[in-house]
Amino acid sequence: MRISILVAASENNVIGKDNKLIWHISHDLKRFKMLTMGHHIIMGRITHESIGKALQGRINVIVTRNKNFNAEGCLIVHSIEEALLRSSEDNEIFVIGGEEIFKETIPVADRIYLTRIHKNFDGDAFMPQINKEEWVETELERRTEHPDFDYTYITLDRIIA
Questions:
Q1: Residue 41 near residue 148 (C-beta atoms within 8 A)
Q2: CA 97, CA 26: separation in Å to the nearest integer?
Q3: Which of 115, 119, 120 is nearest to 149 (CA)?
Q4: Topology of domain 2-158, CATH
Q5: What's the pTM value of the predicted model, to 2 decimals?
Q6: Alpha carbons 153 and 161: distance in angstroms, whole number
Q7: Largest Cα–Cα distance of the chain, in whole Å?
Q8: What band does 161 get if pLDDT is binned at 50, 70 and 90?
Q9: Domain extents for the chain?
Q10: Model confidence pLDDT, tens digit, residues 2-59
Protein backbone atom coordinates (compact mmCIF):
# COMPACT_ATOMS: atom_id res chain seq x y z
CA MET A 1 0.00 0.00 0.00
CA ARG A 2 1.39 3.38 -1.05
CA ILE A 3 0.40 6.49 0.90
CA SER A 4 0.42 9.47 -1.46
CA ILE A 5 -0.17 13.14 -0.76
CA LEU A 6 -1.84 15.04 -3.59
CA VAL A 7 -1.57 18.81 -3.23
CA ALA A 8 -1.38 22.07 -5.18
CA ALA A 9 0.66 24.76 -3.44
CA SER A 10 1.96 28.19 -4.38
CA GLU A 11 5.62 29.20 -4.19
CA ASN A 12 4.96 30.39 -0.61
CA ASN A 13 3.17 27.08 0.20
CA VAL A 14 -0.36 28.51 0.28
CA ILE A 15 -3.00 25.85 -0.42
CA GLY A 16 -6.15 27.82 0.31
CA LYS A 17 -7.92 30.81 1.76
CA ASP A 18 -11.28 31.06 3.53
CA ASN A 19 -11.80 27.30 3.08
CA LYS A 20 -11.49 27.54 -0.72
CA LEU A 21 -8.93 26.94 -3.43
CA ILE A 22 -7.48 30.20 -4.70
CA TRP A 23 -6.85 29.16 -8.29
CA HIS A 24 -8.69 27.17 -10.92
CA ILE A 25 -6.55 24.98 -13.15
CA SER A 26 -8.68 22.78 -15.37
CA HIS A 27 -5.81 20.46 -16.31
CA ASP A 28 -4.85 19.97 -12.66
CA LEU A 29 -8.45 19.07 -11.72
CA LYS A 30 -8.50 16.48 -14.53
CA ARG A 31 -5.18 15.09 -13.30
CA PHE A 32 -6.55 14.92 -9.74
CA LYS A 33 -9.54 12.93 -10.96
CA MET A 34 -7.41 10.60 -13.08
CA LEU A 35 -4.99 9.85 -10.25
CA THR A 36 -7.62 9.32 -7.53
CA MET A 37 -10.40 7.53 -9.42
CA GLY A 38 -11.10 4.14 -7.88
CA HIS A 39 -8.97 4.83 -4.80
CA HIS A 40 -9.48 5.91 -1.19
CA ILE A 41 -9.10 9.66 -0.68
CA ILE A 42 -8.43 10.83 2.86
CA MET A 43 -9.34 14.37 3.87
CA GLY A 44 -10.21 16.43 6.90
CA ARG A 45 -13.76 17.52 7.62
CA ILE A 46 -13.10 21.11 6.56
CA THR A 47 -11.72 19.97 3.20
CA HIS A 48 -14.79 17.79 2.69
CA GLU A 49 -17.08 20.70 3.53
CA SER A 50 -15.22 22.94 1.04
CA ILE A 51 -15.79 20.32 -1.68
CA GLY A 52 -19.44 20.09 -0.63
CA LYS A 53 -20.11 16.44 -1.47
CA ALA A 54 -18.54 13.01 -1.78
CA LEU A 55 -16.37 12.68 -4.87
CA GLN A 56 -17.85 9.97 -7.06
CA GLY A 57 -15.84 6.90 -8.03
CA ARG A 58 -13.66 7.10 -4.93
CA ILE A 59 -13.99 6.03 -1.32
CA ASN A 60 -14.13 9.32 0.59
CA VAL A 61 -12.59 8.96 4.06
CA ILE A 62 -13.15 11.95 6.32
CA VAL A 63 -11.08 12.48 9.46
CA THR A 64 -12.85 14.45 12.18
CA ARG A 65 -12.77 14.76 15.96
CA ASN A 66 -16.54 15.33 15.93
CA LYS A 67 -18.08 11.98 16.95
CA ASN A 68 -21.50 13.11 15.64
CA PHE A 69 -20.34 14.18 12.17
CA ASN A 70 -22.04 12.47 9.26
CA ALA A 71 -21.60 12.91 5.51
CA GLU A 72 -23.57 11.07 2.89
CA GLY A 73 -21.50 8.61 0.88
CA CYS A 74 -18.43 8.99 3.08
CA LEU A 75 -16.57 6.86 5.60
CA ILE A 76 -16.11 8.83 8.84
CA VAL A 77 -13.06 8.15 11.04
CA HIS A 78 -11.51 9.90 14.01
CA SER A 79 -7.76 9.64 13.42
CA ILE A 80 -5.23 9.34 10.62
CA GLU A 81 -4.32 5.89 11.92
CA GLU A 82 -7.94 4.76 11.61
CA ALA A 83 -8.19 6.29 8.12
CA LEU A 84 -5.11 4.39 6.95
CA LEU A 85 -6.30 1.15 8.55
CA ARG A 86 -9.75 1.43 6.94
CA SER A 87 -8.07 2.12 3.57
CA SER A 88 -5.39 -0.56 3.79
CA GLU A 89 -6.82 -2.83 1.07
CA ASP A 90 -6.13 -0.11 -1.53
CA ASN A 91 -2.80 -0.25 -3.39
CA GLU A 92 -2.55 3.57 -3.32
CA ILE A 93 -4.25 5.88 -0.85
CA PHE A 94 -4.46 9.61 -1.62
CA VAL A 95 -4.33 12.23 1.12
CA ILE A 96 -5.94 15.39 -0.28
CA GLY A 97 -5.93 17.87 2.61
CA GLY A 98 -6.10 20.09 4.40
CA GLU A 99 -3.18 21.57 6.28
CA GLU A 100 -3.55 19.56 9.51
CA ILE A 101 -4.05 16.28 7.65
CA PHE A 102 -0.93 16.98 5.55
CA LYS A 103 1.08 17.70 8.73
CA GLU A 104 0.02 14.35 10.19
CA THR A 105 0.62 12.29 7.06
CA ILE A 106 3.92 13.65 5.69
CA PRO A 107 5.92 11.50 8.15
CA VAL A 108 4.25 8.30 6.85
CA ALA A 109 3.77 9.22 3.18
CA ASP A 110 5.62 7.35 0.44
CA ARG A 111 4.94 9.79 -2.41
CA ILE A 112 3.94 13.42 -2.90
CA TYR A 113 2.22 14.57 -6.08
CA LEU A 114 2.83 18.31 -5.88
CA THR A 115 1.45 20.87 -8.28
CA ARG A 116 3.71 23.86 -7.65
CA ILE A 117 2.00 27.10 -8.64
CA HIS A 118 4.76 29.54 -9.67
CA LYS A 119 3.32 32.58 -7.93
CA ASN A 120 2.91 33.76 -4.33
CA PHE A 121 -0.60 34.04 -2.90
CA ASP A 122 -2.20 35.39 0.24
CA GLY A 123 -3.82 32.54 2.14
CA ASP A 124 -4.64 31.01 5.50
CA ALA A 125 -3.94 27.32 4.81
CA PHE A 126 -0.44 26.10 4.01
CA MET A 127 1.37 22.98 2.88
CA PRO A 128 3.97 22.08 5.51
CA GLN A 129 7.61 22.36 4.50
CA ILE A 130 8.97 19.25 2.81
CA ASN A 131 12.37 18.13 4.06
CA LYS A 132 14.27 17.82 0.75
CA GLU A 133 16.74 15.39 2.33
CA GLU A 134 13.94 12.82 2.73
CA TRP A 135 12.57 13.02 -0.83
CA VAL A 136 13.81 12.52 -4.38
CA GLU A 137 12.20 14.10 -7.42
CA THR A 138 11.13 11.32 -9.81
CA GLU A 139 8.96 13.23 -12.30
CA LEU A 140 8.74 16.83 -13.43
CA GLU A 141 6.37 18.40 -15.97
CA ARG A 142 6.31 22.17 -16.52
CA ARG A 143 2.96 23.62 -17.68
CA THR A 144 2.58 27.06 -19.26
CA GLU A 145 -1.02 27.22 -20.55
CA HIS A 146 -2.57 29.07 -17.59
CA PRO A 147 -2.95 32.81 -18.36
CA ASP A 148 -1.94 34.04 -14.88
CA PHE A 149 0.97 31.79 -13.89
CA ASP A 150 2.99 28.74 -14.85
CA TYR A 151 2.92 25.61 -12.75
CA THR A 152 4.83 22.35 -12.49
CA TYR A 153 3.77 18.81 -11.66
CA ILE A 154 6.42 17.36 -9.37
CA THR A 155 6.41 13.78 -8.10
CA LEU A 156 8.51 13.16 -5.02
CA ASP A 157 9.27 9.71 -3.65
CA ARG A 158 10.55 9.12 -0.13
CA ILE A 159 14.20 8.17 0.01
CA ILE A 160 14.46 4.75 1.64
CA ALA A 161 17.41 4.79 4.05
A1: no
A2: 19
A3: 119
A4: Dihydrofolate Reductase, subunit A (3.40.430)
A5: 0.95
A6: 25
A7: 45
A8: low
A9: 2-158
A10: 999 999 999 999 999 999 889 999 999 999 999 999 999 999 999 999 999 999 999 9
